[in-house]
Amino acid sequence: MALKRSKPTTPARRQATFYDFSGLSKKKPEKSLLVSKKRTSGRNNQGRITIRHRGGGAKRNIRIIDFKRNKFDIPAKVETIEYDPNRGARIALLAYKDGEKRYIIAPKDLAIGQEVISSKKQVEIKTGNAMPIKYIPSGIPVFNVELEPEKGAKLARGAGNAVYIMGVEGKYAQLKMPSNEIRLIKKDCLCTVGRGSNSERRHVKIGNAGRKRHLGKRPTVRGTAMNPADHPHGGGEGKQPIGMKHPKTPWGKPALGVRTRKKKKITNKLIIKRRSKKRGKK
Fold first, then answer.
1. Is residue 240 scored above 50 in pLDDT?
2. Whose CB has fewer CB within 10 Å in the chain, the N or C terminal residue?
3. Residues 6+ apart with CB under 8 A from 56
């Protein structure tokens, strides 16, 4: 799916790019797989803002996605490939031979009418098929990967994402993450062959503030543009550096690049190589 541009009627529209939805189905979402989404505008149950810069946005429904792929050994036909406003990747509606329908995250190059299957045994290495990691040859891209067997996919679910299998040894498999991190995952965890669809998403340019508001994102003000009472970076005349060794959050804590992973987290032993390129550093 390619991107498209509009006529440059304004400076913003000259820069903006848009999705070309020509490859998607015109069908409305499957009604039985829709759930209404309650908008909280970043507030918790006490009404306090816990996530800033959220609010408004277009109304949307949640599509119930099958991340477990636990309907084993029953072939399914791809009925539609649809847009999902809640994620970057496209979703595909599967119709199983017993009549049940489920949504999955669509892999790249999945075609309408194609047949896919999920199994705990080895099946054909074909885009859209799901099976345990131990049956996938090294170097094959997979996505929608489980962290624990039968718990549902947690890894590489975004648009264009893929994980590469480096090898299988013992009860673990070595996986190379989209971040270049290498970690161990139990070899019985399910994964889907292929990579996430809509990899062009990273090239979309929003263009103007109105499109951001449609996405439910409110304006973000730079700390350097604030007063000293409002932000550690604030104050001064005109533009100037932040005036401190490291950037900080509005509440004075270190920001931008600070590691938040706990040093004694139990799964640290499963990480062979961190994103920092320093082997074994947690």
1. yes
2. C
3. 41, 213, 216, 218
- The domain made up of 223-282 has a fold known as Ribosomal protein L2; domain 3 (4.10.950)
Cα-based distances in Å from 60 to 30, 78, 87: 14, 24, 12
Domain boundaries, the chain: 3-37+57-201, 223-282
Tell me the Ramachandran region of residue 277: left when phi exceeds 0, alpha when psi lies from -120 to 50, beta otherwise: left
Tokens of 216: 């439910």
Q: Hey, what CATH topology would domain 3-37+57-201 get? A: OB fold (Dihydrolipoamide Acetyltransferase, E2P) (2.40.50)
Amino acid at 195: R
pLDDT of residue 174 exceeding 80, the answer is yes
CA dihedral 244→245→250→256, nearest 10 degrees, is 150
* Threshold 0.70, pTM exceeds: yes
